[in-house]
Structure of Gluconate 2-dehydrogenase subunit 3 family protein:
Amino acid sequence: MNRRTALRRLLYIAGGTLLLPACYRQSGKETIALTHLVIDEEQENLLAELVETIIPASDTPGGKELLLHLFVLKMVDDCHNPEDQEAFITGLSSFASLAREQEGQDFIKMDANKRIAFLESLKEIENEEVKRFYGITKRRTIQGFTNSKYVMTDLKKYELVPGRYNGYFKMT
């Protein structure tokens, strides 16, 4: 065995040991580390689809592409009081069961028009848990979108104060 073959095999083994933990993601665990909320993978996927429905992808990136569902989870985990966190978790499970009960299928499996119609029908329901959950999610999704790197760098062109000088502006 020559030295080049030995080094090549050693690099293959080292690369394999570095990549091996990434292959064993425990299914059912959340993507982001949370201290107060306990969310499983199914609930995280539901929240991702809800965020994508609120801010759909078009010529701009959507909510799922900007990872706004993780922003919502982190904000609820860090910035809301324990009552809001509990309402968020119970509202998330109530939202999933309400969608299944009203539409006959899971929210994730609905097409975009059915999702929008279902979200518009939430105004008339009397379930306060779902309304509170949807309100928190919508508010934090919009906050995350307006504070995202995409909006701040590509969409919004910032001019320093006092702005540019226009010498031809007529004073009346």
User: Anything to note?
Assistant: The first helix runs from residue 3 to 23. The chain has a mean pLDDT of 88.
